[in-house]
Amino acid sequence: MPAQSPRFRSVLDQFAPYRPGGRVASPDGRSFKLSSNESPFGPLPSVTEVIAAAFADVNRYPDNGAAELTEAIARRHRIPPEHVAVGCGSVGVTQQLLAAAAEPGAEVVYAWRSFEAYPLLVRLAGADEVIVPIRDETHDLAAMADAITPRTRVVFVCNPNNPTGTVVRRVELENFLDRVPPECLVVLDEAYAEYVRDPDVPDGLGLYRDRPNTAVLRTFSKAYGLAGLRVGFLVGHEPVATAVRKTLLPFSVNTIAQAAAIASLAAEAELLARAGQVVKEGLRHGRIRPWVGLLITRPLAIIPAVLIIGIRGNSSVTDLLVLSQVILALQLPFAMFPLLHFTSSRKRMGKWRNGWFLLLTGWGSALLITAMDIDGLPAAFKGAWIVITGH
Ligand SMILES: Cc1ncc(COP(=O)(O)O)c(C=O)c1O
Fold this sequence. Notes:
It is built from 13 helices and 7 strands. It is of the alpha/beta class. The chain is globular, with a radius of gyration of 28 Å. The chain binds pyridoxal-5'-phosphate.
C-alpha cells in the first residue's frame, strides 16, 4: 500500500521556519538577550501596573478593532485613525499586508540582506520574490526601482536596515518614491525609527502623507520595550489600512498588549529617553573601542622593542624610545583604518577583528624592524620621527 500522508503546500519545502535571535544564558543564570534587537530595559512601573490590571479581563476576547489603541496612535502621530492598522507585532502586520496585496504571479521586491522575515512571508504569500542585493551594506534604491515591473505589488525598504544598521536618506528615498508607479505599494519598515539620530533620515510618517502608495510599519517591540506582547502597526492611506485590517487574524492583538501599548504611549517621553541611552551606549561603543584598542596595543608595541634591544644586547634608552616610536609609527596607518571603519556605517561589525588587527600590526612592525639593523635605520626616517615626536 502506498505511504499516505496529509498534503501540504509545496512552498513549505523551500524554507526553514523563521529563526529568531539565539537565547543566551550567562554562567550565573542571568542573561541579557538582545539578539532580536529588543530593548534591554524591562517595562516601566506605570506600564507594569496597567499590564497587571489588564489580567483581570482575560476571560473576555480583546477588542478586535483595537479602537482605543488605534485612537491613541492616531493622536500621537497626528494622523486620522482610519490610516492606522494594528496587528500582532509589525511582523504580523507584514503578513497581513502580504495576505492583502500579494498572490501567486505577483512580485514583491526587497533588499538582501535585510529583515529575516521578508523571504519567509513573501514565499508564504505565494508571491515571487525579487531580491536586490544591498550595496555597501545599504539598500540600492536605484536597482530596486529598476526591479519594479507591472507585476510588482509591494517593495520593502527597511530603514534603518536590519541587520546592517544602515539608513537611506531623504533625497535618495524621495527620488526612489518618485520612481515607483502608483499601483505598487512601498512599505517603509521603521521598526528602529526611535533610535535614528541622523537628521537626513526622513520620518516615513511625514513621507506617506502625500503618497497614497507609501505605508509605514512601526512597532512597540523595540524602543517601547513590549517585544513579548506583540503589538505593531501600519500607517497608510485609507485603502491600504483598510485592506490590512481585513486580513487580521481575529483577536490576535490581545487585551494586555493593547493596554500596555496605550500605557507606553502615555509614558513615551521616559521610553524614548531610554532609547536615547541605548543610542549613546552604542555610539560610545563604536567610537571608543578603537581608542581603547590603540591604548592597549601602543604600550604592547614597546614590548617587542624591549625584546629586540635585549637580543641585540643594546640597552640604550634612546634606542628603546626610537624603536618603540618606529613600531608605533608603522602601526598608525593600520590604526587609522579601524577608526575610519568605525565612523562609517559598519559600527556593528569587526570590533574584535579590529583589536586583533592592531595587535598583529604592532608585532608585525616589530618583526619588520628586527629584520633591519637599528643603527642602519634610514636617517631620514629617524630624523622625521624625531621632528614629529620631539624625541
Ligand atoms: C526591521 C524589522 N522589522 C520588523 C521587526 C518585527 O518586529 P515586531 O516585534 O513588531 O514583529 C523586526 C524585529 O526584529 C525588525 O528588525
